[in-house]
Amino acid sequence: MHRADRHPSRRAFLDVTGATVAAGLVAGCSSDSARPGRPAPSAAATSASVPATGRHQAGITLPRSSQRNLLAVVADLGAAVAPGPLLAELGETVRALTAGSDPRLLGLSPGDLTVTVGVGPRLVRTAGASLPGAADLPRFSRERIASPARGGDLLLQICAGDALLVPVVATALLEQAGDRIRERWRQSGRRGTDVSVAEGRTAPRNLLGFIDGIVGPHTTAEQERDLWLAGPPAVAGGTLAVLRRMELDLTRFAALSVDEQEAVFGRRRDSGVPLSGGSIASGPELGAKTPDGRYLVPVDAHVRRANPTVVGVGHMLRRSYSTDEPAPGLLFISFQNDLRTFTATLSRMDASDALLPFTTTTASATFLILPGFDRQRPLGSHLFG
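The structure corresponding to this sequence follows.
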């Protein structure tokens, strides 16, 4: 079993990325923080706070630029555990953590901390078999998934600019849940350097050196169409998440020439511009050809095989993170209001996508991301009362 799939004791619950956290911290202080006896603020202290309450949960479209650090924890509920009270408690804990009032923060500033909570298909089916989120993910090719790393009842997605916050917040949430849940798997990740895509919009580079997450529902109208669930009332304002942990064959990909790497993706590695030309934000012109009749974007290029217009589905919003434990790879996270957006896309990619042979999926799950909450409407009350 992978290290990320073990079930550590809840009291000794520290993120497996402790060494990475230590390496990634940047120390700094103002003239005030340098005074004797005054502690230096954490990196999160300079980040704008993100409201935990509202129509939608934070950590999807807010903040607009995703935080650098993530930990996803997937767990199961005990057989006799009622999801409603547990989710309401977790929602109150999230509100206290993001407000900085929970003593389990150990004095750390919450900064841009977000916690996003989702429930798996088994729990959704207890509320209604026809509800969005009630369907399990099918199996696909190039999977090597141990049983504990497939599916799950509960998702806790913790994101923060300050790497120190992530394991501290995970510990607090799992302590709050106590013996009512049992962890299945967890994965930490980090965002690469952001590259400007359009005015007010950026996307990070991944471990393969390419810009990731350029295409998606970015405007309010696009998000209402492709991201947020409009009904029934129990799920309105939520969305559907897919998590896929993938190992990447960096050695074999790095052995390709730059031209060959670009043919795999269908974009320029340095700029992100489609091989058919234009700007980084331009959609690829899939019909464009060279004078001798060859497609500028190869027939098996990733941007062609995963193109939502060709697949006939909506756009996914991605918050993917690069990983180095248990192996170099990617935690692919997509949000969409129809699970078919993901399943139809991956089915088409399975047939012939030049990128997939460099990937092996080692964990997979889907969740209904619950609608937003506040003091009057506890987390999960829309679905579980």
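The radius of gyration is 21 Å.
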